[in-house]
Design brief:
The protein is mainly α. The protein has one domain. It is about 80% helix and about 0% strand. The protein contains two helices and no strands. The relative contact order is 0.15. The model has no long low-confidence stretch (mean pLDDT about 95).
Amino acid sequence: MTSHILLIVVFAALASLVFAVLMRDDPREQLRVGTYLFLGFVGSAIAMGWLMYPFPL
């Protein structure tokens, strides 16, 4: 069984890597933008999950 948080982290890592490489040319800027995107993806997914937790299926 695969953990949802593991899937979120893998998706966030791959998506932020692609977006950072496409958006910036300088490797230092790529790292900065990629880190912000990664944290944004993971943070927003956790926040949305936490906000939806009280609602029943």
